[in-house]
Amino acid sequence: MNRKYALAAFVGFIALCLVPVFTSNPYYIHLVETIMIYAILLFGLDIVVGYTGQVSLGHAGLFGIGAYTAGVLFLKVGAPFWIIVPASIAVTALFGAILALPALRVSGPYLAMVTLAFGTIIQILINEMTFLTEGPMGLKIPKPTVMGYKFNEESFYWVVCVMLALSLLVVHRVLRSQLGRAFEALRGSPVASDCMGVSVYRYKVYAFVISAGFAGLAGCLYAYSEQYISPNTYNNELTVMFLLAIIMGGRKTRVGAMLGATIIVLLPKLLDDLEAFRVVASALAVMMSLGAGIAIAKGRTTLNTMLAPVVGTIALAAFSFWLDNITDWRLSIFGLMILFVVYYLQDGIVGFARALLGRSSHADTAVVLKEDNPEQDALIQTSGNHQENLIVAKQVLMQFGGLKAINLVDLTIRKGTIHGLIGPNGSGKSTMMNVLTGIYTPTAGSIEFDGRSVIGRTSSDIALSGIARTFQNVQLFGEMTALQNVQVGLHHTFSSNLLDVALHTQRFTSEEHAATERGLGLLRFVGLLDLANEEARNLPYGKQRLLEIARALALDPQLLLLDEPAAGLTAPDIKELVSIIRKIRDHGITVILIEHHMDVVMGVCDTVSVLDFGQKIAEGRPAEVQADEKVIEAYLGGTAA
Ligand code: ADP
Ligand code: MG
């Protein structure tokens, strides 16, 4: 972690710890305690929502499972606190795996509905399983006793502080590791994740499990904090509040989670107290106006974009003074604020503040680029067994409904060659790649890669066995930096597990260091070293294509599939691309190149196969193929049609 951020986090944490010293009012202490407990849950929820990009409306249910695991273990078994905490985490994590199952099949609104149903079912179960949970009566739990010491309101507050700090550390480390990059990659492009050997299936489940673990810890602490739990706490309103907290605070930031927790805990209280509401609304208006003024003066934003937020907050403040009774307006004000945030502050409060301050969200992950990065060879010489042919495909048929996108094609790729695959648009070239990489399972035929069949295997498994690819429509992980994109490709070089990541063991730190060095080496190989810290979506199109190649090479592939890498590139970029492709071949990596630029194909390919309407119509050395009548006709026919 960057020193400045670590220091700020530390100061904030000390300030939080000192709350009971400044006020002895148990009401305030309890409020802050609740905020911290919610923040722990939100750290976890953000993994699922902010990083993997899935919706979960099941987190109030998970929160309830954590609370009830604690309550039941205490009342029925008399388990001690130090058993109850890990048990709540473990039991809830297990339910997280169950919640993940629908996420593997559906997404978007469907996933929202299924997870909402999950939450409802949990609530009903808690209500009905009276033999364990006492049903609607609820459970009473005293503050814990550890080694003869019984915690009181104040000392338990510090327990929550410590748990918050530990959660923050763990979640921070997870998200800055190969695991966090895998989660983020899922959001960026599931297809590309799979093709980089990061199984979407596995990491979606991981994300839900880890996320649920935090919800379990929060639930357990909540039970001890409230000393009474009952089923109707864990309702759908709470689950929506959690999601709102992430959206309002801003996803992919821990500060945002803390802010979100503060808002959902304090806002209902604030909307009960007109005086306090006026003060806060006025302060907000002043801060917003000042912030906007400074940002505009520094040229970081324009008057147009700032107008609505500034006018909105000033209107809110004016409104608060006009009101003489707030109770009737609470829900409307709350609703308006949500609309406002969703509409104008799409990256939440933290994202908005970052824009005003002109900071990138990658400020704390950026690597320092040294001029003297060791000139190591980023490409690993590939070996493998000594077969002459790397790919042997026979009679491959790929049918979509009535359309035979690939119609009984035989394809043999010799090791160490650059094999061109050409043909008019829609002739089945990309489909061939998708079949080779396991995205589609062919309707019939056989495909062997290095002597082993690829049919029926998952994309990530095939990728890990040595086939890397790029995509015709670029599939980068847009919100991640160029270096992080390549590091996702290096995921296979990590053997460290969650524990290594959380504890920063020697194994993890050395693997992470190696992945950074290799990542930079690969970026240098494609000429993108100086853009290492740039978000992929901000790169020019040609650079994005090169970045995809670097990421694919990170897999240490034996075979690299390039799907129209020169499309949309300028002439100098194409020249650079050709020299990169040659260098890749010289490292012993076999290449299949789909390309429309004939000069590129003729210049670099050893062999060319031509597809037309899903059938192979010619094959041979570039010059032979170019002179083939059937090929000329296919291309002329293709353009004439
Ligand atoms: P190209 O040679 O231009 O890369 P493609 O392999 O993308 O061609 O497409 C070959 C044919 O298969 C096209 O007619 C396309 O519409 C069809 N096709 C490709 N993928 C699918 C799919 N998932 N479902 C239905 N048809 C598809
Ligand atoms: Mg194509």
Per-chain topology:
Layout: H1 3-17, H2 19-22, H3 26-51, H4 59-77, H5 81-105, H6 108-128, H7 130-133, E1 139-140, E2 145-146, E3 149-150, H8 153-175, H9 178-188, H10 190-195, H11 200-226, E4 228-229, H12 236-249, H13 254-270, H14 274-297, H15 303-322, H16 330-344, H17 348-357, E5 389-400, E6 403-414, E7 418-422, H18 429-436, E8 444-449, E9 452-453, H19 459-464, E10 467-469, H20 482-489, H21 498-503, H22 506-525, H23 541-553, E11 559-563, H24 571-586, E12 590-594, H25 598-604, E13 607-612, E14 615-620, H26 622-627, H27 629-640
Parallel strand pairs: 7-12, 7-13, 10-11, 11-12
Antiparallel strand pairs: 1-4, 2-3, 5-6, 5-8, 8-9, 13-14
Bound molecules: adenosine-5'-diphosphate and magnesium ion (MG).
Could you characterize what this model shows?
- This protein is an alpha/beta fold and 641 residues long.
- The protein has 2 domains: 44-252, no CATH class; 377-636, P-loop containing nucleotide triphosphate hydrolases (Rossmann fold, 3-Layer(aba) Sandwich).
- Helices cover 60% and strands 11% of the residues.
- It has 27 helices and 14 strands.
- The strands form 4 sheets. Strands 10-11-12-7-13-14 form a 6-stranded mixed sheet, sandwiched between helices.
- The protein is elongated, with a radius of gyration of 29 Å.
- The mean pLDDT is 90.
- The structure holds adenosine-5'-diphosphate and magnesium ion.
